[in-house]
Amino acid sequence: MKDSRYDDLIEATTKRGAANSASLFRKSVVDRRTFLQGAAFLGACGGLMGFGLTGCTPANTGGAAAQGWKAGTYSANVTGHNAPFTVDVTFSENAITAIDTSTNQESLGVGASALEDLSNKIMEYQTLNVDSVTGATLSSMSLQQGVKDCAEQANAAKTLAKAPGPDDSVESSYNADVCVVGGGGAGLTAAISAVQAGANVVVVEKCGITGGSTNVSEGALNAVDPERQQKQGIEDSVEQFYEVTYEGGHEQGTPELIHYLTDNALDSVHWLESLGVKFKDETGSATGSLGERSHYPATPSGNTYIRAFEAFAADHADQLVVLHETQAKELILENGSVAGLTAVHRGSQEITVNAKSIVVATGGFGANVEYRQQVNDGVWADVKLDDTIGCTNIKPCAQGEGLKLAEGAGAELIGLSDIQLHPCGTPGTGLMEDIRTSGRNRIFVNKSGERFVNEGAERDTLCKAIFAQPESTYWIVVNKVRYPSETEPDANGATIENMLALGHIVKGETVEDLAEQTQMDATKLQASIDGYNQVVAGATEDPFGFKANNTADRQLTEGPWYACRKVPTVHHTMGGIRINVNTEAVSADGEVVPGLYACGECTGGIHGSNRLGGNAIADCITFGRQAGMQAAQHATS
């Protein structure tokens, strides 16, 4: 069944202007002096929010046309992407003075950032004419409708509808040492690493938000960490990490790249900590991670990393500019070396970024249905990866344009058929939301209530087992061990209470009650739970191979019980731009493309034909740091 929430993520048109931080620079060339001018302006306006301005005073207060406004605070109930919420707007006799969306349950870094950004713009310009944020369209529309409804109650709608919106134009030309294409987890890591190496950096990001698909991840980062793991009684080693990554990718990954990842992942954890990220004291296990080495932020969301990156950008605005709603079109080459790129802002304004180094960090192509079908001759060749199978990523952020950019400059593309499906897709959308498959203390059962797979297996193993079940679907079943409180928000801001209200999950006080509501066989469901509990207790071996060897495992005995239906969904594309350990783009004949670097999901060769859970963030940060440093050294040498 098609879910209307998917509309939020399938709209790829560019609607929102560049981040206000970009429009600060009113010269046609950005140099260190201009960066410093921008930093001063940012300080006056209170800093960055998602690389945009907050705290500026309204530009249109006191307008004469505001006669007849009814001062007061008005409310409107709206439906967001994740759950309904209330928009409260306070009016004076001639201005909007406050917008409150604090009851929202939107995703951090995506919908929540869009609400804050648009609220700031509406108040700054005293207008209803603000464009939706690409990548968070449904959240944007809910805020716009709520403010409009409140304005009508205050007799202010006609005036606000006539007021002009913000000027989101940018400059026609920028100079930088390094230009990063893509403002997701890998791209922002590369940008920060380049700044730390002394470079001026311009980031071009096609969406209206930064963070990309990292924003909607749980933030799991695999690394061998003796300090944490030994306290938990976990035996691990870098060599073991390498082996499971290589073997988990069906021995198709490039050994040199895997070694670089596993050798340097812990340094990436420490690097993030140096930026202010706080991790949980214990490591865990992401879905399909094949080990207890997944580091989770204290708030288990990839947006935790993005917030730290935003804070760094605010402190280094003299060296780092982000241009939102800016689509890179073509790399500029001079004598075979990269010299910059051309781009289009908001679909019409052409700009040029001159840079000696380019880092491509545009993410994967999992949401590009046409392209993924063209290259799907690998492990999922028997599965039609059409639009009946969703994608976990934000669609505008996962189209694969970076592959075309790099290929046009001479880089080779490898492993394109290596597409990963994830077992945690929401029917109708493919998004990873509601109850998640990662962690412990849950069982997977088919429509009859029977367990059918080792819940800790690799992702491709899990998805193949799911496709073999009736209607290619299954239920995750958990109880109060996993969710002791129905009102406590999870990593994405959702609660059991809201998931129940929206009809996304089913609740039963007893196993029999849950079985009745999900139309499962109560006897089979109880037998599945009992069998799992015996494995956890050490009384028997699991016929599917699940091993309860972690102190976090608990027997599932008491209600309330919750069930959430799931399907396989496209999650990650392991193929892409060929790179070496210096993240230099490499051509088919083995030669590097001078000045061209790549990192993150747009690269190939690291994960083989199956990526382990928790290795994507490790990849983005580890190779992003390397790409930024190498690009800066090339540009400034």
What labels describe this entry?
637 residues; Sufe protein. Chain: A; FAD/NAD(P)-binding domain; Flavocytochrome C3, Chain A, domain 1; six-stranded mixed sheet; five-stranded antiparallel sheet; 18 helices; 19% strand; globular; FAD-oxidoreductase_2
Topology:
Layout: H1 7-10, H2 20-23, H3 32-45, E1 48-49, E2 52-53, E3 72-79, E4 84-91, E5 96-100, H4 111-125, H5 137-153, H6 157-162, E6 173-175, E7 178-181, H7 185-196, E8 201-204, E9 221-222, H8 226-231, H9 238-248, H10 255-274, E10 294-295, H11 303-315, E11 320-323, E12 326-334, E13 337-345, E14 349-354, E15 357-360, H12 369-374, H13 401-408, E16 413-414, E17 419-425, E18 443-445, H14 459-467, E19 474-479, H15 496-501, E20 506-508, H16 511-518, H17 522-536, E21 561-573, E22 576-578, E23 584-586, E24 592-598, E25 603-604, H18 615-636
Parallel strand pairs: 6-14, 7-8, 7-15, 8-11, 15-24, 22-25
Antiparallel strand pairs: 1-2, 3-4, 4-5, 9-10, 12-13, 13-14, 16-22, 17-21, 18-19, 19-21, 20-21, 23-24
Helix pairs in contact: 4-5, 7-11, 7-18, 9-10, 10-18, 16-17
Sum this structure up briefly.
By secondary structure, this protein is α/β, with parallel strands linked by helices. The chain is 31% helix and 19% strand. A hairpin with a 4-residue loop joins strand 3 and strand 4.
DSSP, total strands: 25
User: Which CATH-level-2 architecture of the largest domain?
Assistant: 3-Layer(bba) Sandwich
Q: What is the CATH topology classification name of the largest domain?
A: FAD/NAD(P)-binding domain
Low-confidence stretches: 1-65
Number of helices: 18
What's the CATH superfamily of the largest domain, by name?
A: FAD/NAD(P)-binding domain
Largest sheet: 6 strands, mixed
User: What value does the average pLDDT take?
Assistant: 88
Coarse structural class: alpha/beta
The termini sit apart by: 56 Å
Q: How much of the residues is beta strand, in percent?
A: 15-25%
- The level of helicity is 25-40%
InterPro entries: FAD-dep_OxRdtase_2_FAD-bd, FAD-oxidoreductase_2, FAD/NAD-bd_sf, Flavocytochrome_c, FMN-bd, Succ_DH/fumarate_Rdtase_cat_sf, TAT_signal
Organism: Eggerthella lenta (Eubacterium lentum)
Domain FMN-binding: 80-154
Catalytic activity: dihydrourocanate + A = urocanate + AH2
